[in-house]
Design brief:
The complex is a heterodimer of chains A (177) and B (319). Chain A is an all-alpha fold and 177 residues long. Helices cover 75% and strands 0% of the residues of chain A. Chain B has one domain. Classes of the chains: A mainly alpha (177), B mainly alpha (319).
Chain lengths: 177, 319
């Protein structure tokens, strides 16, 4: 089981690095999809199958598709890729990379000196998730629902437009009578 | 060790059967369409024209496998594989008969929804990578159509989940021992069927590839076996949706005692496959905005109402 976890974690890390370093935005988003898929694999391994599948359905299946949808419409061609290439010079990323490498070394050291953490896995079935959502965390669900409602109302307001009538016979105005 | 062998054997059998069925569905569709339109259909190669599928496959293999120079090569190659992979993955959770299934996940239904939501990528990426206006338009239509119909698809199934109290498909089938869920969930069934047709972008909802307006939509640049993958993916999709309808609303393998369960399941599935073909023969294609409006203004309220009423009834029954 451990080796499966390490493989999934490795794929996640590599694909996330690829997301940052790709010049073509669609390729970057595809790596992001892979990163989300491997993350859902990790959820699955840690005994949360419900969260794992929601990760795929919502993030990989809906939100990322919308991202790609928008980028497709922008028609970013070779120029953007070139621009990205110019922006991603070593001069830019070497400083933060060194600093985060130090942090990573520290984290590695801390994990190494700590005695091997034994995680006792407990599979959480969908029913348990539902019960905890609608009993102790009900207020959170309701708040999220309100937030989403506000989003829907806002989108409906922005998206509304007057119906365009292109032919004079189809106009429903009094002057045609 | 024997369980591992059993699963490997099962996977090989299911995979082989499915690909064969999907290939011969092409023949079945052309024959049955011809029957309903009062003509012969393919009738030259082999008995009843059965070998037309072999001839078609050979033709596809020998065609030039052309990747346009203006296309994004990697993604162009990946896109047809995505649809085959996601649809075939969905078959993992379907219980064909007691003991004949690959994985009995306790989140089976969600797994099906997840795989069908990943199937969108094949259209989107194929259309985008082709770098062609028609393909891009097809991809845009496909993405918006499939994302919106996914919503109703998920919602329409929740009634079934409430009645059976589980996402596990074997539990759902066993919960239909007394009566099939079509009796208590007619609205859910209708919404699921319509959403399923839209998900597989079959006629009359084949708007992403509408030949009369978009040449062939998202796969206009594809040729050879890459086109074949999209083609087979579509027929696998039909089989999948039919199998899911049977499992969720028509009692899966349950049926009269004199029929073996597997045969019962296959018979019911083929009834729905034929229904899909009949739809193609009889209905015209709606306009794109009509399809979206129909989804959001009719199907979504119906699915939500169904959910609300089912929830109330289940609560009352439990009291």
């Amino acid at each position: 089981m451990d080796s499966v976890f390490y493989i999934a974690a490795f794929v996640t890390v590599i694909s996330t690095i690829m997301v940052i370093t790709r010049h073509n935005p669609v390729h970057a988003l595809l790596y992001l999809v892979i990163s989300l898929l491997s993350l859902s694999m990790i959820f699955f391994l840690l005994g949360a199958p419900f969260a794992a599948l929601l990760e795929i359905i919502i993030y990989a299946g809906a939100i990322m598709v919308l991202f790609i949808f928008v980028i497709m419409l922008l028609n970013l061609g070779k120029e953007t890729a070139k621009q990205e290439k110019e922006w991603l010079k070593p001069k830019v990323w070497i400083g933060p990379a060194i600093l985060s490498a130090i942090l990573f070394a520290e984290l590695f050291y801390l994990i190494a000196i700590a005695h091997a953490a034994s995680y006792n896995l407990q599979t959480v079935n969908p029913k348990a998730v539902a019960l905890s959502l609608f009993r102790p965390y009900l207020i959170g669900v309701e708040l999220a629902a309100m937030l989403l409602m506000a989003g829907v109302v806002g989108a409906a307001h922005i998206g509304q437009h007057k119906k365009m009538v292109l032919h004079r016979f189809l106009k429903e105005e009094d002057d045609t009578l | 060790m024997s369980t591992v062998l059993y699963y490997i054997l099962m996977i090989v059998i299911v995979l082989f059967t499915l690909t064969t069925i999907a290939a011969w569905l092409i023949w079945l569709e052309r024959r049955v369409l011809a029957l309903w339109q009062d003509r012969y259909g393919p009738n030259r190669a082999g008995p009843f024209g059965l070998l037309i599928v072999v001839a078609d496959t050979i033709k596809l293999f020998f065609k030039e496998d052309w990747i346009p120079p203006f296309a994004d090569k990697t993604i162009f190659v990946i896109a047809p594989a995505v649809i085959g992979a996601t649809v075939l993955m969905s078959f993992v959770i379907i219980p064909y008969a007691p003991g004949i299934l690959i994985a009995d996940l306790n989140i089976g239904l969600l797994f099906f929804l997840a795989m069908s939501s990943l199937g969108v990528y094949s259209i989107v990426l194929g259309g985008w990578a082709s770098n062609n206006k028609y393909s891009l338009l097809g991809a845009l239509r496909g993405a918006s159509q499939m994302i919106s119909y996914e919503v109703f698809m998920g919602l329409s199934l929740m009634g079934v989940v409430m009645f059976s109290g589980s996402f596990r498909l074997t539990d759902i089938v066993l919960a239909q021992k007394g009566y099939w869920f079509i009796v208590t969930q007619p609205a859910g069934f209708v919404v699921f069927l319509i959403a399923g047709i839209a998900e597989t972008h079959r006629l009359p909802f084949d708007i992403p590839e509408a030949e009369s307006e978009l040449v062939a939509g998202f796969h206009s640049e594809y040729s050879g076996m890459k086109f074949g993958m999209f083609f087979i993916g579509e027929y696998l999709g039909i089989t999948l949706i039919s199998a899911m309808v049977v499992t969720l609303f028509f009692g899966g393998w349950l049926g009269p005692a004199f029929l073996p369960p597997l045969l019962c399941f296959i018979l019911k599935t083929f009834v729905f496959i034929l229904f899909f073909i009949l739809l193609r023969a009889s209905l015209p294609r709606p306009r794109y905005d009509q399809l979206m409006e129909y989804g959001w203004k009719i199907l979504l309220p119906v699915a939500l109402l169904n959910l609300l009423i089912t929830g109330a009834i289940v609560l009352m029954m439990n009291k």
